[in-house]
């Protein structure tokens, strides 16, 4: 239940002041900031995107993350009905405790998922370091692996630039990777349009 238009300015002013205030518990502060923003719903379009961005940017700004890469979208979408019920309870009965409990649970559960994904990615990286040199038979094996993990969806020209592998060697490595099934075409090349390739095993881990 967003505020009426005449109250939008004061509501945002209040929200901004709290955003920059110093709270003892940053995660509780983030829960309130996220809840307030979703209820204020200040824009005609893009509120969802802004709300999603708030979480990693706040955690990064408060030095709780080393980079702004922590997203609750998957958890909140899976719990969509509960998510909206707790937001509604703030407007209807001022139940901040229920919302904060729900939000902190989301943080914990998403962190567990992220930890598991990180372990799977590190395991994949170790397996690739052992297997790939036999597949591509090149002194540039580690550079090729690092380039795949840096950007698992790519064009060959981009792979050459990021891997810093000589062009002819990079193209031969890409062919060997395709032949082995490690990468595949996401969009085949056509005419002057370059092919887009994908490293599916990494994407599958990231997408769950």
CATH architecture of the largest domain, please?
A: Orthogonal Bundle
Question: Per the principal axes of the C-alpha atoms, what is the gross shape?
Answer: elongated
How widely separated are the two ends? Answer: 33 Å
Number of domains: 2
Average pLDDT number: 94
Radius of gyration: 23 Å
CATH level 3 topology of the largest domain: Fic-like fold
- Lateral strand order in the biggest sheet: 1-3-2
Description:
The chain is mainly alpha-helical and about 210 residues long. It folds into two domains: about 5-115, Orthogonal Bundle (Fic-like fold); about 135-205, Winged helix-like DNA-binding domain superfamily/Winged helix DNA-binding domain (Arc Repressor Mutant, subunit A), CATH 1.10.10.10. The protein contains ten helices and three strands. The protein has a three-stranded antiparallel beta sheet. Helix 2 packs antiparallel against helix 3 (about 45-60) and helix 6 (about 95-135) packs antiparallel against helix 7 (about 140-150). It is elongated. The two termini are about 35 Å apart.
């Amino acid at each position: 239940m967003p505020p009426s238009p005449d109250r939008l300015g004061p509501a945002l002013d209040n929200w901004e002041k709290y955003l920059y205030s110093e709270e003892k518990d940053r995660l509780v502060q983030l829960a309130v900031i996220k809840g307030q923003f979703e209820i204020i719903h200040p824009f005609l379009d893009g509120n969802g995107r802004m709300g999603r961005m708030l979480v990693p940017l706040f955690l990064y700004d408060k030095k709780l993350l080393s980079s702004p890469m922590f997203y609750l979208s998957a958890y909140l979408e899976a719990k969509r009905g509960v998510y909206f019920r707790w937001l509604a309870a703030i407007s209807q009965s001022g139940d901040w405790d229920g919302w904060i409990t729900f939000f902190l649970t989301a943080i914990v559960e998403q962190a567990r998922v992220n930890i598991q994904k990180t372990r799977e990615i590190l395991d994949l990286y170790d397996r690739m370091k052992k297997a790939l040199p036999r597949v591509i038979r090149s002194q540039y094996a580690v550079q090729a692996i690092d380039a795949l993990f840096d950007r698992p969806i790519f064009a060959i020209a981009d792979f050459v630039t990021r891997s810093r592998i000589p062009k002819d060697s990079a193209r031969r490595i890409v062919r060997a990777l395709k032949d082995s099934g490690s990468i595949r075409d996401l969009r085949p090349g056509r005419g002057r349009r370059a092919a887009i390739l994908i490293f599916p095993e990494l994407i599958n881990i990231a997408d769950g």
